[in-house]
Amino acid sequence: MIYLIYVISLIAVYGILTISLNLTVGYTGILSVAQAAFMGIGAYAAAILLTQWGFNFFTALLVGMAIAGLVSWGLAWATLRLKGDYYVIASFGFQIIIYNIFLNWINLTRGPFGIRQIPPPEALGFSFQGPLRYAIFALGFLVICLFVARRLGESPYGKVLRAIREDEAAAASIGKNVARYKISIFTVSAMLASVGGALYACLITYIDPFTFTIHESIFILALVIIGGSGNVYGSVIGAAVLISIPEMLRFFDVPTTVAGPIREILYGALMIIFLRLRPKGLLPERITSGVMR
Amino acid sequence: MDRDQSFFRVEGLSKAFGGLHAVEKATFGVEKGSLTSLIGPNGAGKTTLFDLISGFLTADEGRIIFKDQDLVQRKPHEIVGLGMARTFQHLGLFNQLSVWDNVFLALPAKRRERLWGVFLPRWMLRQEERALEERSIEILNFLGLGEKAGEQVANLSWGDQKLVSVGRLLATDGEFLLLDEPASGLSDEQIEHLKSLLRGLVSRGKTILLIDHNMEAVMNISDWVIVLNFGKIIAEGKPAEILANEDVVRIYLGV
């Protein structure tokens, strides 16, 4: 039972991460493989501020969001004028840079030794320690993120993002400042990813740079595609399916050295199957049409 | 003949792609409230000229003056903000969105489209929304698309998609409209409708610059015609003058 509750927390965390990437990939059509970098920024900000500086979780969370927001704004400003494949390569480069910072800035991150004993969040003297409390806490954040992402998607701002996704030049031709929209949604996406990262750090209680690699970014991208690009509820479903199915391997007599590769193969196979047979994912995007009143 | 070109003019505009001179020292003007057509064989540089004027390409040299401002180095959305908008040969519609959304999105930038606007309470934006909705309805009814407002653009016929692209153009509230091959792919009946539509816009005070291959339509509705060949302007004048120009007839009309 405790394990099941732990999996629910993990689904909530990955649901947030998937929603965050869906804002850029699904809504705006910006394919990025750097989400684990922003997740890592949030996770490290929380871990460092909670373990070394004695910060409260919510303050640490805000600091992580601010750092992720600033870094992503800078990255977006420098690279989002690149198109398609070139931007994917740029985001890949950024992912490698951030990973190496986590790995080599030992004074701050403890490098490959990682940061241990990350405490659970506390608010008003109440600790979210224990699987059930933490699951409720993480699910609360998931609901907030869902609300924010849905509101963004259904707003006129979200409609402009979709217009940009369909035809950037056409969006510019009707007076939309495409660069500004892309930079703003990319920043929001990174800030949400940092929330997922902070929650991840407190859930696992230990982080090291090897969690925030390109593999993790691609895994989050797989969740977006399988769940349904452009549908935030699909992101949660995608996270639930892809987190829980491999976790079931634990109940079979599969050695851990085999379970890891099986998991990777499963993710890869599912991604290929979905792209081939159901490219719109488990929950396809639904765009509400404007109405005349 | 003297024409007032203070509204819009292009001076010595050039653009080369490697060794290919797509546009070479083009100089011409457009009179406010007129319908001017830009004609020429395929590859003459017409769309490149449109891309330069609307900011999608940057000129190697020359100036583009619109309302006393040089547009070279300006970004497309800034140019739209100055009152100039364009359509594309490929239409570039937002196919997954509805007819309504395509037109509504093109209405001039507003608070509700900003990131912070997402979290404003609805009542704060209601007045702005009402005005925008009324304008959308007006445009859709003017184009005869009112009944199809809720339809996804991808499901419309080519003719209706063309109308949506015109609707989107009108929604920008631009006073200078650039249309890239609006008549291509349309039936005779639709072309007649388009012709009266464009003349109607001019009579409402819009200025139009258009590219098209349909000579009958161009000569019928234009006040002024500019002929481009291999990136150079080889003639300009009233339709009757262009039809009587031997060079034009030989190079472009092939007779």
Global morphology of chain A? globular
Query: Which strand-content bin applies to the residues of chain A?
Result: under 5%
State which percent range the strand residues of chain B make up.
15-25%
Unreliable runs of chain A: none
Point out poorly predicted stretches of chain B.
none
Quote the average pLDDT of chain A: 92
Number of helices of chain A: 12
Record the strand order, biggest sheet of chain B.
6-7-8-3-9-10
- String of helices and strands of chain A: HHHHHEEHHHHHHH
Please report the two chains with the greatest interface, counting residues with C-beta closer than 8 angstroms to the partner's C-beta. Answer: A-B, 31 and 44 residues
Helix fraction of chain A? over 70%
Q: How does the helix and strand content of chain B classify structurally?
A: alpha/beta
Give the total of domains of chain B.
Answer: 2
How many structural domains can be distinguished in the coordinates of chain A? 1
Under the CATH scheme, the architecture of the largest domain in chain B is: 3-Layer(aba) Sandwich
Mean pLDDT of chain B: 91
Across the major sheet of chain A, the strand order is: 1-2
Q: Report on the biggest sheet of chain A.
A: 2 strands, antiparallel
How do the helices and strands follow one another from N- to C-terminus of chain B? EEEHEEHEHHHEHEHEEHH
